[in-house]
Prior knowledge:
The complex is a heterodimer of chains A (260) and B (455). Chain A is of the alpha/beta class. Helix content of chain A is 33%, strand content 25%. The longest helix of chain A is centred in the N-terminal third of the chain and has 13 residues, at 46-58. Chain A starts with a strand and ends with a strand. In chain B, a hairpin with a 5-residue loop joins β1 (91-96) and β2 (102-105). The A-B interface holds A 117-118, 120-121, 124, 136, 138, 187-189, 215-225, 228-229, 231-232 and B 293-294, 296-297, 300-301, 303-305, 309-310, 312-313, 325-326, 328-330, 332-333, 335-336, 355-357, 359-360, 363, 367, 370-371, 420-421, 425.
Amino acid sequence: MGGCLWRPHGRNIECLYSWRPVARAYIEGPPNKGITLKILLVEDDKQIAEYVAKGLREKGHVVDRADNGRDGLYLATGERYEVMIVDRMLPHMDGLSLVKAARSSGVKTPALFLTTMGGVDDRVAGLEAGADDYLVKPFVFAELLARVSALARRPPIVETTSLRVGDLELDLLSRAVARAGKRIELLAQEFKILEYLMRHAGEIVTRTMLLEKVWDFHFDPKTNIVETHISRLRAKIDKGFDKPLLHTIRGAGYVIRASE
Amino acid sequence: MSSARRSSTLSRILRSASFRLTMVYAALFIASAVVLFGTVYVKATDAMQSDMQAVLRTEAFQLAEIHHRFGLLGLAEQITRRMNFRTRGPIYYLLQAPTQQVVVGNLPGMPPVDGVVDFVRQADSDEPANPRSKLTGFGLTLPDGSFVMVAQDASRLIDMQHAIESSFAFASAVILVLAVAGGMLLGGSFLRRIDTIGRTTRAIMEGDLSARIPVRGTNDEIDQLVVSLNAMLDRIQHLMEGLRQVSNDIAHDLRTPLGRLRQRLEDARDHATTTAEYSSAAEAAIVEADLLLETFSALLRIAQIEAGAQKSAFADVDLSAVARSVGEAYLPSAEDSQHRLELDIADGVALHGDRQLLAQMISNLVENALSHTPAGSTVSLAVAAGPRITVADNGSGIPIEERDRVFDRFYRLDRSRTTSGSGLGLALVKAIAGLHGMAIALEDNQPGLRVILKK
């Protein structure tokens, strides 16, 4: 089985670790199209594991499964994965210890924690153990997919000073936004939303991800605050231009991209 | 039955830790009494003996001096005089000629021995009250071969020794009696108190959660333990009641949506024929299930917060920043629903707490105000030093008699039955405020409602 750890590199992606040399041009388009991720799924609930694995495989990913913490750690330290999805409660070794152990043996694979609902402290504990993101069960599959994609292609450490999608430009230093050279005035929160979307250009960003990353809200407000902010942002950046950049993906979230 | 019970109580007292402790103390006291009395005994006997011997020696040498000056007859005369002259208790004399023949004296003849001699005086009509008394004597052989012996009754020494022995015995007996009685008393009262704790615990185990252990008010260790136990029981009862409340709430309020969900699925099974119909039924079921999950999640969250499990994540929070972020998040939605949202947030108001929960609390209050006031209303969010959070609206307010109940789980005003919402938003606000030690006050905003949270 071959594969590779993809990292964005300008408009292309390069293969950082490969066990079969491949080079592939990065096609701007919906996420996961043509990109194979090698994912480790550690989940003891058979039904959830099958549901998640099936969904991920349908999107073209390669999924390895473990149904207990010990096997999960064995795989996580022995194989190379782009993302690992780890349940909080596992037989033999819980998810927290698994991620901690993997991190201490040098595994840097981004980890997504699955926690049960109501476990409000779990988030902090998970992040402290070395997990990169968390998701509360039960979750919508689109949410999981969006987060896995975001984790696998997290922006490289190199800080850029400006972001660009099509003719839309965002300067991180002067905090100025312009489209086709025309200056756009954004409110602070609109700027934060746009910055997050542009950092994940081409990837689906869910409503919950925006709530967490832009507002640091780890709860679900009843009011449609994300939707109203997005519609204001859309009015500012897309209104009056032929090609819309900010798209709503029904049942999943939002994506900013230059072309269909 | 009562004697059997008494004997079992007695055996329990004997086995009790406090009684055993008392016994150890009693043994220690008796041991120290032995050491004390023993030392006194030896020292007093020694002192008395050497005192007696010194007296006898002095007397004997005086007699030798007299013998030297006046000869045997002079000495005999002197001894006779001294024998009739008993000033310092009975002193016995014996003067024997070199032939061992008794010249004068009230002691029987004996082979001459120099120095201190202890002996028992033979029965003698002279002292009928003390027929066989022990004597200590001092013998001296004079230069001409005659022998003089001066002796004194040792009964004073023996009396003293007896006095010390008997007072030791008496003191030991008193110590022992006091120790046993004290131990039983202490052990008994200790056991009674332990019994009370045990009885209360059993009552609680049998389901009477309101039972409490009586406090004596002596503020000793047991009392302190009892106070802690009672506080623990209060906490447990509080948590149990919370849990019971949650179960009741779930039973009451989740049955309806679950029933609805079931009905929909049944309807789809029986009547749906096209894929579109099935998919729309599935869609509706998912929406219904999501609502249920949301309610569950909120209930669990409230229960967790009320259990105080969140305090581990407490840190110093910039309340001003949190409130501003929440307020700004709601500005566009407020505008869309034709509300005016006014923010009046003082800078630098800090609070020790959980940032996420505080954000959720303020968010719930703002959301509540926005969703329960008609279009055109004004909602204001203010944060002031204290800290003090105020969310006010100019809507129709809440009748006084219902103000206490709006924070109950699932409680909804009659007129808001039709609007969406789980009825848990304000219950969560109450739980979070409670966790942060903040008091909630509902006031009339004339018109409208003003919710004030302050520490």
